Amino acid sequence: MQNIPDTNEFLAKLQTENIVEKKRHSAIMPICTLLAGAALIAVSVATAMPDIVSFTLLVAGGIMVIVGFAYFLRIFDKKSGYYLYVKTHSRLRTHSVYVAASDKELCRQIVETKDFARLADVRKNNSTLTMLNVTVSDDNRFAVIQLYEYDLSFVPATECAVACDNEVQHIRTFLNKTVD
Q: Does residue 121 sit in the same domain as residue 45?
């Protein structure tokens, strides 16, 4: 397979062109979860309660501390975060859609020619080695679509195609279609 940039690299390129913007996750929720978990642990240890209540508070507090710490760590991860479509400030969400192997060439043509109306002819299939990686804004005004094929892992088979405004409706309809 040739060296084709994947969807994340393409989105990073669009970020330099000021089409999308990468946002970092907020630290407020992880810190609140950590503090609430620590408070539950302190209450379970410091107050006289029946053993079952104390143990329940201790376990719940411990789980909250672990979850809060895990989410707190992702703040420092350079790859962590999410993209926004700059024009509408709508969040982009990525979907992996597995398609029937017999539709691989059709998908390749759709992505290369940007004829997204033909997505209605593509059949979804959960047991295949062909995947469409679709990133769509929440307001359905912007989308990036790319075909991936399995070669020990999923690798890009086509360049990314960008859809805006009315074209995105075809992609959203395809995403909402059930598996054949």
A: no
Looking at the structure, tell me whether residues 14 and 36 fall in a common domain: no
* H or E stretch covering 134: strand 130-137
pTM here is 0.73
Tokens of 109: 């043509």
Contact 132/99 with Cβ under 8 angstroms?
yes
Q: What is the pLDDT of residues 23-54, one digit of tens each?
A: 887 888 889 999 999 999 999 888 887 888 88
In a domain, 119, yes or no: yes
Residue type, 164: C
Domain count, the chain: 2
Question: Are the beta carbons of 104 and 121 closer than 8 angstroms?
Answer: no
CA distance 109 to 139: 26
Give the range of the structural domain holding residue 120, as residue numbers without chain letter.
Answer: 7-23+84-176
Is the same domain home to 12 and 93? yes
**Residue 99's closest CA among 59, 150, 62, 24?**
150
Please report the pLDDT score of residue 160 as a whole number: 92
Please give the backbone phi and psi of residue 64, each rounded to the nearest 5 degrees, phi first. -65, -40
How far apart CA 11 and CA 27 sit, in angstroms, is 24
